[in-house]
Amino acid sequence: MHPAPSIIVFTTLSGIGFGLMVWLGLGLGPDGIVFALLASGLALAFASIGLLASLGHLGNPQRAWRALSQWRTSWLSREGVVSIATLILFGLYALAWVVYGQRTLWLGLPAAAGAVVTIYCTSMIYGSLKAVPRWSKPPTSLLFQAIALAGGALTLSALAPVSGAPEPTLLTLAELIMIAAAATWLFWSARAADVRLDADGSSPETAIGLPGIGRVRLLEAPHTSPNYLMKEMVFRIGRQRAAALRRVALVLGFVLPFFAIALVLAVPALWPVLLVAIPVHLAGIAASRWLFFAEAQHVVSLYYGHRA
Question: What's this model's pTM, rounded to 2 decimal places?
């Protein structure tokens, strides 16, 4: 699949934004006003920028509001409805926190639940596509949740010291979540690599509607120049480039943030390192998202002579 920049920004920023909302809604982190402004503002900014970036992938962004009416059948529509409700809930929670100086959990807990549901809906936009076995077979929802919570925990632990000393409990939590997210990503990648285009019985023979005549091969291309389907659904990436990007994603997205957290646990005075770890983590997750789309194979590629 063609890894459009708007989709990379959307899945990267909205994930960390809603992941941070989960931890803040649960009441984690200091109660100071400065922390409330920074953490809540960053969560809302990340999530909002990510959602706005997703509009860039629509054919007619000005009609995006119409997608909200299809929530009964479309995961994209459900994600839009739930994300708006979550942003409103969390915004009220953050406002009450800043104005009154204390957290209102009867607003925070629903906001945290809404953030989890939003991440799930985002993952199902891709996980529900049976025409892309690489997404529909592995636990794609688990991958999105793990990465979002890891990014949120990292950001939470990085911002906490603005209202005091680094909190060992938050740092330990972030470290454990980062390990879990890295393990989930590695597991998903390994399993996705084993998923073939014929996972659901598709083949070039079924693509042309003649599965019973034996093995077929493409004599001539269906047309003389690339079309929309070939540009969007039959994206190709070299193995060496994919392997290099996978290493970049692992190191930047998980390994370096993990060591940054471990360093601050050992030497709390070095907590500004965590602020640098946030953009490093985002760069790694962006690389993993690029691979998520670039390596996905749509069964329409069978029509153009590709085999599993």
Answer: 0.91
Task: Report d(CA 199, CA 211) in Å as an integer.
Answer: 15
What's the mean pLDDT in 33-56?
92
Q: Find out if CATH 1.20.1630.10 is the number for domain 5-304.
A: yes
Taking the chain, what is the end-to-end CA distance rounded to the nearest angstrom? 15
CA distances from 304 to 1, 14, 131, 134, 215 (A): 14, 35, 15, 19, 15
Alpha-carbon Rg for the chain, nearest whole angstrom, is 21
CB 2 within 8 A of CB 297: no
pLDDT band at 41 (very low <50, low <70, confident <90, very high): very high
> Is the confidence at residue 47, as pLDDT, over 80?
yes
CA 243 to chain centre: 20
- CA 218 from chain centre, in angstroms, equals 37
Q: Please tell me the distance from the alpha carbon of residue 290 to that of residue 8, in angstroms, as a whole number.
A: 6
Q: Which residues contact 15 (CB under 8 A, 6 or more apart)?
A: 50, 119, 122, 144, 147, 148, 151, 285
Residues 6+ apart with CB under 8 A from 8: 286, 289, 290, 293
**What's the pLDDT band for 306 if we cut at 50, 70, 90?**
low
Report the alpha-carbon distance of residue 161 to residue 151 in Å, rounded.
Answer: 17
pLDDT digits over 240-275, tens only? 888 999 999 999 999 999 999 999 999 999 999 999
What is the pLDDT, as a whole number, of residue 155? 97
Going from N- to C-terminal start, the domains of the chain cover: 5-304
Cα 18 versus chain centre, distance = 10
Which amino acid makes up residue 44? L
